[in-house]
Amino acid sequence: MTVFYKDNFHINKVCTFPGFPDACNNRTDDITLSGWGNPFIDFFYVNPLSADGSTPFNHGSNLRQPWFNCSCCPTNDVRFIPSLPGYVYATNGDSLYVNLFVAGHGTGTMGDQRVRLRQETNSPWEGRVRLRIDPERRAEFTLRVRIPGWATNQPVPSDLYRFLETNSAAPVLKINGETVNPTIEKGYALLHRAWQPGDAVGLVGVLMNLGDALGHNGVGDAALGRGTLSPGIEPAG
Question: pTM value?
Answer without folding.
Answer: 0.81
